[in-house]
């Protein structure tokens, strides 16, 4: 029987990567949408050629990889250019994710995506697990992890789906307001629950 797909999401600094890593250590096939997004613009992939054709050689680093900072700057200034890029990349990222999920051998598989709700990727999933963290902890953790100023983290929080919007779509919520041990115990509890679901439904 094909594994059913669990969507795992959460805001920046919520601990979704740590949760995903623990699910993976329990033998669950996990696919990270961010990795797929990076992979579709690797050198030699058609998307990178299209980006350079549209925006010019300044989109490439000296080693032939995508100059993300230049691209980000370009699309932030122009909503049409951003739309063009999304139309190019979203279907490719979707195909990449689907191909990777196809390889899953575990009873269920996980799609990890910070933009699960906004990007429409939730259509690929049967259930959604939101890793939720109080905002002051998100700020603290992200500033510590990425050594970035508070304003920058607040700007990212604003751009991501609002917490209420994410929680509205959640089938389960993992409240990550304690330490890593607590997070891992919660993951194990949910894993047992998910193993008993047929096709993602109780």
Automatic annotation (TrEMBL):
The keyword Nucleotide-binding applies. InterPro entries: Depp_CoAkinase (IPR001977), P-loop_NTPase (IPR027417). It catalyses: 3'-dephospho-CoA + ATP = ADP + CoA + H(+). CDD domains: DPCK. GO terms for cellular component: cytoplasm. HAMAP family: Dephospho_CoA_kinase (MF_00376). Belongs to the CoaE family. This is Dephospho-CoA kinase. It comes from Pseudomonas knackmussii (strain DSM 6978 / CCUG 54928 / LMG 23759 / B13). The gene is coaE.
């Amino acid at each position: 029987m094909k594994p059913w797909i669990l969507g795992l999401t959460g805001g920046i600094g919520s601990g979704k990567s740590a949760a995903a890593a623990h699910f993976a250590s329990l033998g669950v096939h996990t696919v990270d949408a961010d990795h797929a997004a990076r992979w579709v613009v690797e050198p030699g992939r058609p998307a990178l050629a299209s980006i350079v054709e549209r925006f010019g050689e300044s989109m490439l680093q000296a080693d032939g990889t995508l100059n993300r900072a230049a691209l980000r700057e370009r699309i932030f200034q122009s909503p049409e250019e951003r739309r063009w890029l999304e139309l190019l990349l979203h279907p490719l990222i979707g195909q990449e994710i689907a191909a990777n999920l196809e390889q899953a051998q575990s009873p269920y598989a996980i799609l990890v995506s910070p933009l699960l709700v906004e990007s429409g990727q939730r259509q690929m999933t049967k259930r959604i697990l939101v890793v939720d963290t109080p905002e002051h902890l998100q700020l603290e953790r992200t500033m510590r992890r990425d050594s970035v100023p508070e304003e920058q983290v607040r700007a990212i929080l604003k751009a991501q789906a609002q917490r209420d919007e994410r929680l509205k779509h959640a089938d389960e919520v993992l409240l990550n307001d304690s330490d890593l041990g607590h997070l891992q115990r919660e993951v194990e509890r949910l894993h047992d629950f998910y193993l008993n679901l047929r096709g993602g439904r109780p």
